[in-house]
Amino acid sequence: MELENKWLSAELFSKLLRGDSMEAIGTDPGIFLLDQDFRLVYPAAVKDSMPLLAVDRRSWNSRYSLYMDRAETEEFARNNYSYAVRNYQTALGLAATKQQEALAIEGMARSCLADQRYPQAISYYQRLWSEYSQTVNLGGHPYGISAPLQLYAIGTLTGEKVCKHDSLIATYELIRQGHWLISSSAYNFFKSEYASIIKMDLESQESGFERTLKFHQFLIDQLIPAIQERSGFSGFHNSTETRRMYMPANGDQYLISYKEIPLTGADRQQMGGIRWNLDTVMASIIPPLLATAEEETGLEFLLVNGNRSNLPAGDADQIPETSLHLTFSKVPFPWTLVAIQPGYEKLESDVKTQLFIYGLLIAIIIVLMLFGVFVLLRDISREADSMHLQTEFVHNVSHELKTPLSLIRLYGETLLLKEHLPEKDRKEGLQIINKESERLSQMINNILDFSKIEMGRKEFDLKAGNLAEVTRDTLDSYRYHFVKKGFTIEEDIDPDIPILLFDRDALEGILVNLFSNVIKFSDKHKRMGVTLKKTPEVVLLVVADQGIGIPPDELPHIFDRFYRVKGNSDFEARGSGLGLTLVKHAAEAHGWQIEVQSTPGKGSTFTMRIPYPINSEEQL
Ligand code: ADP
C-alpha cells in the first residue's frame, strides 16, 4: 500500500507531465493518467491512425500558403522542378513555425531528387534529419526517421555512400528507445525498414518503447473502457479512495490501482493509476512482506492461485488440509493466502494419539463397568433362580408330605370307625398306611439330611461292612414297591466284594433315592437292573432303568439342589429335587464317584465307582 501511495502521488504525476524521462521511472509499474473524459494524458497520446494530412493547412498564413501552393503546382503538375525549388525557397522565408520550414525544405529536397540533382537533395535531407528531427511531415512521421531512409535510398541510386551505416544503427536504436512518439503501426513499419537496411536481427529483446507501446495499446483497448464502465455515468467520484481491479491480458496478469490525483494547476480532475504486473509483484514485492508477516506471527504463508500451479512442484502437496485460506478483501489478487501452522500436523497427530488413549481408557472403563453390571445381574438372577427353586421345593415337599399323610389319616380313620371290616380290607388299609409312612419317613430323612449338610453337620459313621449285603437288603425292602408297580428286577450282585468302610445308612439312602427315581421316571418299560461287581480297579454299583431318560443339556444339573428336569409334566409333581443332591454328597463323602449316562426315551444308568484297597493285606 505504501508503494501504491508513492506511485499514485500528485508529485510523481506532475514530474511525468513536465516531461521527466520515462526511463527514470521505468515501465513497471506502468503509470497512466486520464482526464475527466477518460482520455489518456500520460503516456502521451499516440494515435494509431493518423489522418493522411497530419498538418492543418488552415493555420498557415496566406503568403506562405500561396508560395507553397505554387511550388506544389510546379513540382507535381508541371514537373518544373527548378521553379518548384525557387517557390519552396520563398515559402521557407515566410514560414512561421518549424513545421512550415520543414515542409518547405522537404519540398526542395524532393524536387532536387526528381531533377536528379543529388548533392542538393542530399544536403536538404541532411538538414531535415539534423534540424527537424522531431518535426512531422504530412504523413505524421518525424523527419528524424524518414530523412535517413531517403538518404539511404539516394545512396543506392547513385552508388555513393551518402549515409553512414553507424548513424542508421543509431537511428534504429533511437526508434526502439521511443525517441519519437509514433503509433505502433508506424513503429513496426520503421523498425523493420531499418532492420532490413542494417541487417539487424528483428528478434532482439523487446525495447522499453515497445513495452510502452503495448502498454498504451492495453490502456486504450482494455483498461480505459473497464475504468469507464466501473465509474458509470457519474464520472469521477470526487474521492481520494484508491480503487483496484484485476485484469488478465495477453497471458500476463495485472493488478490496477487508480485514484483521483489532485494536480495543481490542472483545471480539470485527473485520474492517475498504476498497472502492476503480478509476476513482478510476486517476485519482488510480496516475498519480503510475507517474510515480515511470518516473523511476526510464527506462521508460514504461501500465495496460492486457483489450481495451485504457481507453486513449485511438491510444495502444493505439502499444504496441510488444516491450513487457513485467506482471500484478499481489499486487493483483487487472484490468489488466496494460505497460512500454515508449522508443526501443526505433528500437533494434530499428538492430539489424535491423546484422544485415542483417552478413548481407549474410557472404553476400558465402560467394559469394566459393563462387566460389573453383568456379574451383578448374574448374581441377582442366580439368587432369583435359587429363590424360585426354593419356592418350588416348598411347594413340592408340602405336596409330598400331604399325600401320604391324608392317605394314612383316611385309612386310619376307616380302620378305627369300621370295626367289622372284612380281614382283606383291613389288611390292605394297614399296608397302605405302612407304605405311605415309609414314603413319609424317606422324605423326612432326605430333608433332615439335607439340612444337616447345609449346616455342615452331616456326619458319616464309617464302619467295616459288606456292600453286597447292604445292597441286597435294601433292594429286598424296596422289592415290594417295584413288584406292585409291575417292574421286572434284574439283579447281579457279586457276593465276593471286599469288606469296606462305609456308612450303612448313607448307602441305604443312596440306593433308596436311586430306586425311587427309577419308579418315578419309568413309564412303558418297567425294568430295573442292580449290579454290584468288582473290577480290577474299583467296585461298581450300577442302577439302570429303561425309563424316560434325561435330556443331555439337563444332565449337568440333576445333582444340583432342588433341581428337577422341566417338562416331565407327568412325573414332576412328585419329588423335592433333593434326592440326587444327597446321593452325590454321600458318595463324595466316601470318596466315591457317581456318574450318569442317559438317553431320553431309552433310560438312565447311574454308576458309582467305589475304590477298594488292592493290596490284600490292606483289606479289612
Ligand atoms: P426328585 O425328588 O425330583 O426325584 P432328584 O434329585 O432325585 O429329585 O432328581 C432330580 C431330577 O433328575 C428329577 O426330577 C428327574 O427329573 C431326574 N431324574 C433322576 N433320576 C432319574 C431317572 N432314573 N430317570 C429319569 N430322570 C431322572
Notable characteristics:
620 residues; alpha+beta; 5-stranded antiparallel β-sheet; 5-stranded mixed β-sheet; 17 helices; 15 strands; 52% helix; 15% strand; disordered C terminus; binds adenosine-5'-diphosphate
Give a description of the structure.
The structure is a single chain. By secondary structure, the protein is of the alpha+beta class. Strand 4 and strand 5 form a beta hairpin. The strands form four sheets. It has a five-stranded antiparallel sheet with strand order 2-1-5-4-3, sandwiched between helices. Strands 10-12-13-15-14 form a five-stranded mixed sheet, with helices on one face. The protein binds adenosine-5'-diphosphate. The site of adenosine-5'-diphosphate has 23 residues, from helix 16 and helix 17.
Gross geometry = rod-shaped
Low-pLDDT residue intervals, each spanning 5 or more residues: 22-27, 48-53, 616-620
Main sheet makeup: 5 strands, antiparallel
Mean pLDDT: 81
Strand content: 15-25%
Distance between the termini: 120 Å
Report the bound ligands by name, code or SMILES. adenosine-5'-diphosphate
Helicity range = 40-55%
| Rg over CA atoms | 66 Å
Total beta strands: 15
User: Count the helices. How many?
Assistant: 17
Quick summary of this structure?
With 620 residues, this protein is α+β, with helices and mostly antiparallel strands. Helix content is 52%, strand content 15%.
